[in-house]
Specification:
Blueprint lengths: L3 E2 L1 H8 L3 H9 L7 E3 L2 E5 L25
Antiparallel strand pairs: 1-3, 2-3
Helix pairs in contact: 1-2
Length: 68
């Protein structure tokens, strides 16, 4: 398919696991990714999703702890 890559190809390009790319596709984090039969088609010019760190409830970080 012209203009599209497989999960395996994108995992190699982005230097991540194939499972991570599948997760991003399923979560809708890759614009234009579409599932055909049992595999994902990812636009060749898609940008690698960035990690968005989420704070777990009740977890303290240096920014929200008081220093005495």
């Amino acid at each position: 398919m012209n203009g599209f890559s497989t999960v395996k190809e994108m995992a190699r390009i982005w230097d991540v696991s194939e499972r991570q790319v599948q997760f991003w596709c399923k979560a809708g984090m890759i614009d234009g990714a579409a599932m055909f039969a049992a595999s994902w088609a990812i636009p060749s010019d898609a940008k690698k999703p960035t990690r968005t760190a989420k704070q777990k409830p009740g977890r303290k970080t240096k920014t929200n702890t008081e220093v005495t």
